[in-house]
């Protein structure tokens, strides 16, 4: 049996695998990975935004190796872990949240489950606001707040959710409006949703500053700041899901929410922080973080291997000013894509190294998911890995490691122009 046959025999059908002939990646260096047949690819999806600083980074490997040399991968979070405390101090300071505390998890899902649990406990309400077209994870509450049909795997979530407009502009009812009018219309929608679909004592709003799975949708700067003013009137907490947008990836700001002129009550993070190691977490105002009155631990959350690795990643981002590189390379990528003339391209959007190409049937805005599959296969054939997403599965997503070079951006643009040109 081939590996894909064995995979299909023992792993669930709903595990989304890329490509008609799925890849097995066996090694990586820089922004390139090699598959089991020896073919090399430029990775413009960074795994799935997991590889913030690229593959085979000596500083991260050395930090992890030093931990392994101690003989301990992990004991228990019942004991003090120095690297966990130090990383928490660092993330609390980076967050800009006053009096912040950090709880570590192993994934973005667990981070958002924790944030939702904290908000609902703190506010004594299970009513939650979320954005249409959002994605927040795959467990009970997070799948419940996710506003994207393709990822809404369970209909039995314990939270009561109301969805608001704002995250996905290209197809929303306010698409034609100016930034200011769009923001005003979304604020009005938010107010109406609170007043007409909830009892008013809502726990929180959870939102991605740039929607990831939803297709790298960028709302106008300041939208969530305007939302926060309404939330404050009702005492509703604001959770910024930074699982994709954190650590400087959006270029202009260290956190995606930085573009909105508001400090959230909580931020959740995961993906790039460990550069492939499993680590996520929540950073929140102490008053909110400490609102649980019973014990609650994560056996592996904040384990020493993950926290020494994550510390090395944050050092590397700062030492190499990768936020600036994300801004510069992202702008070049966006400009290069906008110069590609194709009737299949409906929208090119993004910020920093989160860039989306929404594919449509020529002559209109009808989604073209089959074109996205063809571009995915066409770029692979040209030695480039990209991502796919969007409500209609018709968005190509580009998010290379933040160490990406100008030459690699040009190489990716050539492959993309070739694949789009073959549609
Ligand atoms: N939040 C966002 C914005 C995400 O993009 C994801 C994963 O894609 C998650 C949460 C869930 O993270 P994980 O897959 O690590 O559980």
Automatic annotation (TrEMBL):
Enzyme class: transferase
GO molecular function: transaminase activity
Xref: InterPro entries: Aminotrans_3, PyrdxlP-dep_Trfase, PyrdxlP-dep_Trfase_major, PyrdxlP-dep_Trfase_small
Swiss-Prot/TrEMBL keywords: Aminotransferase, Pyridoxal phosphate, Transferase
Superkingdom of the source species: Bacteria
Family: Belongs to the class-III pyridoxal-phosphate-dependent aminotransferase family.
Protein name as it appears in the record: alanine--glyoxylate transaminase
SUPFAM superfamilies assigned to the protein according to its UniProt record, in alphabetical order: PLP-dependent transferases
One Pfam family matching this protein: Aminotran_3
Cofactor(s) in the UniProt record: pyridoxal 5'-phosphate
Self-association and partners: Homotetramer.
Documented EC number(s): 2.6.1.44
Family matches, as PANTHER family: ALANINE--GLYOXYLATE AMINOTRANSFERASE 2, MITOCHONDRIAL, PTHR45688
Lineage: Bacteria, Bacillati, Actinomycetota, Actinomycetes, Pseudonocardiales
